[in-house]
Amino acid sequence: MGPWQTIPIDMTGVPRASQPLRIFVVEDHADTLRALCLYLEHAGFSVWGARSKEEALNEIANANCDVLISDIRLSDGNGWDLIREMGKLRPRLQLP
C-alpha cells in the first residue's frame, strides 16, 4: 500500500465521551488530520482542525477549545511556537 492511499480505520470499541470536549487538532498532513478528527468525533468529541500554524492562530483567536493536539513539525513553524503564540493571544488558556 503506497503512502498516498487512505487506510480504513476500524472504530469498533472506541469509547464515547460522556461530555463532549472541544478538541482543536493542528496537523499539516491532510490524511493524518482527517483520521485524528474522525476518530475523535466518533468518540463523541467536538473536533475541528487546522493545517498550519497560521491557520491555527487565526482559528483560536475566535474559538474556544478545551484541548489542543498539535503536530510539532508544521510546514510553517513548530508546535511549541504555536502554543506560545496561542498563550499570548488567549492569556487565560492553561498551557504547559
The CATH superfamily title: Response regulator
Number of strands: 5
Tell me the overall shape: globular
Residue-averaged pLDDT: 83
The rounded Rg comes to 14 Å
Q: What are the secondary-structure elements, in order, as H or E?
A: EHEHEEEH
Beta content: 15-25%
Q: Give the fraction of residues assigned to helices.
A: 25-40%
At CATH level 2, the architecture is: 3-Layer(aba) Sandwich
The structural domain count equals 1
* Major sheet details: 3 strands, parallel
CATH fold topology: Rossmann fold
Walkthrough of the structure:
The chain has 96 residues and is of the alpha/beta class. It has one domain (22-89): Response regulator (Rossmann fold), CATH 3.40.50.2300. Helix content is 33%, strand content 19%. The protein has helices at residues 30-42, 53-60, 79-89, and strands spanning 22-26, 46-50, 67-70, 73-74, 77-78. The chain has a three-stranded parallel beta sheet. A two-stranded antiparallel ribbon has the order 4-5. A hairpin with a 2-residue loop joins strand 4 and strand 5. It is globular and about 40 Å long.
